[in-house]
Amino acid sequence: IGKNFAAELDITHTEFDSNRGSSRVLTFETNNISFGAQYRFVDLPIKQLVPYLGAGVDILFNDADDSSGSNVDVDTVAGVHLTGGVDYFIMKQLALTSEVKGVIDPDADIKRRDIKIGDYDPTSISMTFGVRYFFN
Fold first, then answer.
1. Angle at Cα 9 formed by Cα 7 and Cα 11, nearest 5°?
2. How far apart are the first and last CA of the chain?
3. DSSP SS3 for 53
4. Which helix (H) or strand (E) holds 70?
5. At 88, phi and psi to the nearest 5?
6. What are the residues whose beta carbons fall under 8 Å from the beta carbon of 97, sequence distance 6 or more?
7. What is the pLDDT of residues 13-30, one digit of tens each?
């Protein structure tokens, strides 16, 4: 968007089990569509190294299945995120990247046949490593 600002679109998928003792109770899935902006520190002595800070909004599409494989309804929620990371450019539009991201969202209702049976807290902190492509 300019010398120091960038727009970001990120889609992630998370899946994990919820257990009671040694028995699996629910398997949760979350698909997070994240829209954000970054402030990039581009004027450092090492031109290939670009740290950044970011923030944005997230829409979390949540779902769950119980131990018998039956679907359980989990609300979709919207929240916000904060990020910090660094890109190391190996070419003009291609960088190795590492990022820490915190997502803050309200609890989602867990329902079976329209009856609330619990809450799901999709708030998270994650760290990723990867390759990033820039469209500029």
1. 165
2. 9
3. strand
4. none
5. -120, 110
6. 85, 86, 87, 88, 128, 129, 130, 131, 132
7. 988 888 777 777 788 899
